[in-house]
Each structure stands twice: as C-alpha cells, then as structure tokens.
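Everyone, describe these structure tokens:
***
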Amino acid sequence: MFRRITLSALLTLAVFGSTFMPVQAGEARAETPKVAHRTVKIDGLDIFYREAGPKDAPTILLLHGFPTSSHMFRNLIPALADKYHVVAPDYPGFGQSSAPPVDKFTYTFDKLAEVVEKFTERIGLTKYTLYVQDYGAPVGYRLAVKHPERVTGLVVQNGNAYEEGLDNDFWKPLKAYWKDRTEENAKPLRGFLTLAGTKWQYTDGVRNVEAISPDTWTIDQTLLDRPGNQEIQLALFYDYRTNLPLYPAWQAYFRKHQPPTLIVWGKNDKIFPAEGAQPYKRDLKNIEFHLLDTGHFALEEDGQQIASLMREFLQKNVKK
C-alpha cells in the first residue's frame, strides 16, 4: 500500500531531487530556484551573502556556525526558495566576508550580532524566521531579544540557550581558556582549527560517513588556514564565555514572546549534545521537537528531512 505524501514533502523532494537525483530522458522536474551570491558593505567590511526566493515572500534568515559559513546552507536554500525568501550571510572572519585581523576588528559575539543586525537593515529585512546553528544561536538570540517584533519563528539546530550539555569533555579546554587566557591553554583549542578537527565536526556521529562530502571540511579548512584566522577563531572561543550569562535573558524572551519553534537537532553531536535541546520545551509552548540520528552538521546527512519539516512548520506558523 502506498503511503500518503504531503505536498510539502513532494516539493522538497523535487528541489533536492533536482540537485542530487539523476533524471531520465524526457522526465519533467521542478526547476531549482536560482541562488544569488552577493556582497554589501557594512561598516567598511564586505559581507557576503546567499539569497534566493521572492522578496515579497516570508523571509528565513539562516545563521551559520563554526567553522563554516553560508556554504552549510547551499542545499537548504534552493529547497525552500520556491516559496520563501531565504538569506544566509557570512560573519566577518568567515566564508567570503572580510576577515580583518584581530587588531583591526573586535571579534566578539556582540560585534557579530551588530554586523548581522546592520546587514538585515541594509538589505531591508523587517521580519524573518531565524534558523540558528552553533554560533548562529548566540548571534540570532541577541537579535531576537533586541528586536522581538522582527522574529516570526525559530528553527534551532544544535544551538544552545541553556547550560545543559555544556559540561562534557569537549567544553573542558574551552572553560580552562575562559578562566585563564594563556597560550598554554590555547594549545588544545588550536586542535579544533586543524584539518583533523574540522573533519571530525562533519563526520562524528553520522550514520554513514560516505554520505558526507569531503568538500565540506576542505572548504572550511582552506578558510581557517588564511593568515591571521586562527587568532580570529581563538578570540571567538574566548568570547563564547559571554554567551552563558545571557541565557536567562534569552529564556525570558522565549517565555514572554513565545516564538513558534522547530527543533531539528543532531542527537549524536558531542559539541552541542541533545541535553541542550530538551530545555527548550520548558519555556516554549508552540514547539515541534525532532532529534535526528546524526551529528553536528545535521544538514549534511538529513537535509531533505529538515527541509520538509521546515516547510510544514512554516506553512502552519509563518504567514506573509
């Protein structure tokens, strides 16, 4: 017996299928939305972003994590852009955006959020659903607290707003560095900036390593290896300590404003494990919760499922 497939799922499969699946001669398929690759000036910096979809449609603002960039959304963007306006910027120091040295730019999460805020205003985004992953959570939640009227919903993928899950072995060297910012304490953190460390983030916890493209860690590592970039990343490792004291304010935002929220979390992630996903249920009433059997970069292995879940969630909760 055939299982009923929703229109949302069919559209998602059509878009992803046009990217990954072979098409037989004469077979019709949906046209993949075109993605534009653009750059704007923000405070003298070139901020690169990917954009697709009709500008009069509901907007989704995709905020990437470490050590990647908007490249992590390369497949998700066209999977949503037939119906939504999708925008994904690169932060300063990441991807194709400017990466001034640490003595020329203050690499803090406050500053990254400030740049992203100005970016959204420059390109005319007045309302958006936030997709936050890893570093995208502290950037995005700063925006949400400051401008709750702009946020129409949240999609959370391995990004903490609670201290649960931040007590495992991964966080021990980071917390040592927060306590005493010395080169000796920085040495273990430099391991996160190597090819082995970057590849580990993409492959640990996945069901099938062969499904993960080596292009992912190769591209990220090439950018990490730029002169001065290790110092940029170490500055952000150190500043991550400033996020934890803000957790109560972010949780208060959840309780007061109750943004519709979709959790799509790679449950095998050792950086942001599933313990960090569960507490969202305490504060949010309109929440859809999915733990996926994959790792830190869940889009790499479960992008089709995430896109389908997003389409259904957005259809129910986010109107033009």
